[in-house]
């Protein structure tokens, strides 16, 4: 290798020496007869000076922005008034230049990358990734994954790969299917997670497994979702819930300390699902700010305000003075999240004005005492069935965070525990699993299966929440085939249907299964939060846009008739 060092690794030891550097032309300036080039590599930049009489001049003169070049010459200190930190203290007086690869004019100026439309950045991702801030994110990601591997390996975990061409693993999303050529009309599914395989590894006696696993879920995309993404997948045998939480906490504390030099609490705070929903209206509450929901159902019960008089739940948020425009905007958020509306009150002296104030005269003092609302402050109220009311107000709470910049700097982590085992889908009138069908219920709630109190069954399931993002989730698993059948029954699988879809797994459970459990972390999401990025796409080298397209490689794309023929497929719809 001809290169003496990365640009950022040049030190005083290289001064007045003849060195060779390589990189990209970040900027070229012609000053009188002199050419100045800012050369960039992944570590930093260095100013190259090419004098008119230098043998390098003619070659340097051919160089355009983003061309790849090599320079040799003597490294000097820059004049004192121009010295900057790191390699900014030096300049190379070039006596040899080689244009290694001439670049055509790039579609956007890299130094303006932040302002460039994201579609352009995605189409030319390899140029986007040349920007130092993008490289920093790749570097952080690589460091975190190396630290995870080192930590878990030291704790006796085995890194085991599981198949990508497999059959459906239910995690609540649609599958991506891959047609089989050898067996026309049959399909593989790409894994939504390695769930069944990691459980099979426990049955196989592996005892401690981890994998940075690629997973695929066909669902609507958001800023924190991609159709293919990476999970840190973990499973352990002979454990209880606390063992999984403990290893996860130690690992996350280690990563934050080692990579970001940040301390996370020991232990992490814990909230039950019930507490999280009741207080913050979310099972992934952002704890960087307070603003808890307060219960006021009793105050309105049977009262003059008809909409609230018989509501199962009335909850309130007490906040600062808001304008009508802001309240209207928050009402829109509440409605989008399932509420019929958002009622409001403005505190004036010992009473209230505006909104529904004419209905609260009787208990104004109690409302003030319970909510602690300040003079001029606003109360925002939602009512309805408990989950609907708290969820809508939870969305309003997050909107207030953004509107009033309430979130404090830093990281707030928590466990959410005791999720419900089952979820009732009102649209279809059916029960479904909340986490996945292999999650174990609390032993003391087992007898509630099939009764009218089925919704009260608590799962041994937990989520890890960081700054309002769910960055992990897992559970203790069912290891008793009879309980697994009971669970399938509760979500409407007949024994035949369960056997058809998961026969191999049910068989495996019957051959000696240790108690086991695990967790999966959303690795991309964790990287997004750790790096302070606004979108998951910023921490993935080659992401898809929010329509699931790879704009650079142009995927998905149509298949040729020949390919379709081999697969025994006919396509009825044209391209979208
Ligand atoms: N398989 C689960 C998921 O992908 C995580 C787990 O239960 O370990 O969300």
Radius of gyration: 30 Å
Distance between the terminal alpha carbons, to the nearest Å?
49 Å
Across the major sheet, the strand order is 6-9-10-22-21-20-17-11
Question: Which percent range describes the beta-strand content?
Answer: 15-25%
Small-molecule binders: aspartic acid
Low-confidence parts lasting 5 or more residues at pLDDT below 50?
none
Largest sheet, strands/sense/barrel: 8 strands, mixed
How many E-type strands?
22
Proportion of residues in helical segments: 25-40%
Number of helices: 16
Structural class: alpha+beta
* CA-based shape: globular
| Mean residue pLDDT | 95
How would the blueprint of this fold be written?
Elements: E1 18-31, E2 34-40, E3 45-50, H1 57-61, E4 68-77, E5 90-101, H2 118-123, H3 125-128, H4 132-154, E6 158-159, E7 177-179, E8 187-189, H5 195-203, E9 208-216, E10 228-237, H6 241-260, E11 270-272, H7 273-280, E12 294-295, H8 297-300, H9 306-309, E13 313-319, H10 324-336, E14 343-348, E15 351-353, H11 364-371, E16 378-384, H12 386-404, E17 413-417, E18 422-425, E19 430-433, E20 461-466, E21 469-476, H13 481-490, H14 495-509, E22 516-522, H15 523-531, H16 561-567
Helix pairs in contact: 4-6, 7-12, 10-12, 13-14
The chain binds aspartic acid (ASP).
């Amino acid at each position: 290798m001809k290169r003496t060092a990365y640009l950022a690794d040049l030190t005083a030891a290289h001064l007045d020496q003849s060195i060779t550097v390589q990189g990209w032309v970040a900027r070229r300036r012609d000053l009188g007869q002199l050419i100045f080039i800012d050369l960039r590599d992944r570590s930093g930049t260095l100013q190259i000076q090419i004098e008119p009489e230098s043998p390098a001049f003619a070659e340097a003169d051919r160089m355009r922005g983003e061309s790849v070049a090599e320079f040799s010459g003597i490294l000097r200190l820059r004049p004192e008034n121009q010295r900057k930190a790191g390699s900014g203290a030096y300049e190379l007086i070039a006596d040899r230049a080689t244009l290694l690869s001439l670049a055509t004019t790039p579609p956007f100026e890299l130094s303006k990358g932040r302002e460039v439309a994201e579609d352009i950045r995605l189409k030319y991702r390899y140029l986007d990734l040349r920007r130092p801030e993008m490289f920093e994110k790749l570097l952080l990601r690589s460091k975190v994954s190396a630290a995870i591997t080192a930590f878990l390996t030291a704790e006796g975990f085995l890194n085991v790969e599981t198949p990508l061409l497999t059959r459906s693993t239910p995690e609540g999303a649609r599958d991506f299917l891959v047609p089989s050529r050898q067996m026309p009309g049959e399909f593989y599914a790409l894994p939504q997670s390695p769930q069944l395989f990691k459980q099979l590894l426990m049955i196989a006696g592996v005892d401690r497994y981890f994998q940075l696993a690629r997973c695929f879920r066909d669902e609507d995309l958001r800023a924190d979702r991609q159709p293919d993404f990476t999970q840190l997948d973990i499973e352990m045998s002979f454990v209880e819930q606390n063992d999984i939480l403990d290893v996860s906490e130690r690992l996350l504390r280690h990563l934050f300390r080692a990579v970001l030099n940040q301390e996370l609490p020991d232990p992490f705070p814990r909230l039950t699902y019930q507490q999280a929903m009741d207080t913050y209206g979310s099972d992934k509450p952002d704890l960087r700010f307070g603003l808890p929901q307060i219960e006021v159902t009793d105050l309105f019960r049977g009262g003059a305000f008809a909409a609230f008089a018989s509501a199962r739940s009335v909850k309130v948020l007490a906040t600062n003075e808001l304008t009508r425009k802001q309240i209207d905007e928050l009402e829109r958020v509440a409605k989008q999240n399932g509420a019929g509306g958002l009622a409001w009150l403005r505190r004036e002296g010992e009473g209230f004005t505006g909104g529904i104030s004419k209905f609260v005269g009787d208990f104004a003092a109690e409302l003030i005492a319970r909510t602690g609302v300040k003079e001029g402050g606003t109360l925002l109220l939602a009512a309805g069935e408990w989950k609907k009311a708290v969820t809508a107000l939870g969305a309003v709470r997050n909107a207030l965070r953004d509107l009033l910049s309430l979130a404090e700097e830093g990281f707030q982590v928590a466990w959410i525990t005791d999720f419900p085992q089952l979820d009732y889908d009102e649209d279809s009138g059916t029960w479904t699993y909340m986490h996945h069908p292999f999650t174990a219920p609390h032993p003391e709630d087992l007898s509630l299966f099939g009764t009218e109190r089925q919704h009260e069954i608590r799962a041994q399931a937990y989520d890890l929440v960081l700054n309002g993002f769910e960055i992990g989730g897992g559970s203790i698993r069912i290891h008793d085939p009879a309980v697994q059948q009971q669970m399938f029954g509760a979500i409407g699988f007949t024994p035949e249907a369960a056997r058809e879809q998961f026969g191999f797994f049910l068989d495996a459970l019957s051959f000696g299964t240790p108690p086991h459990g695990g967790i999966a972390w959303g690795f991309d999401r964790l990287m997004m939060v750790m790096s302070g990025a606004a979108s998951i796409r910023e921490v993935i080298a080659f992401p898809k846009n929010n329509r699931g397209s790879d704009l650079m490689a142009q995927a998905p794309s149509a298949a040729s008739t020949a390919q379709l023929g081999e697969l025994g497929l006919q396509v009825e719809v044209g391209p979208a």
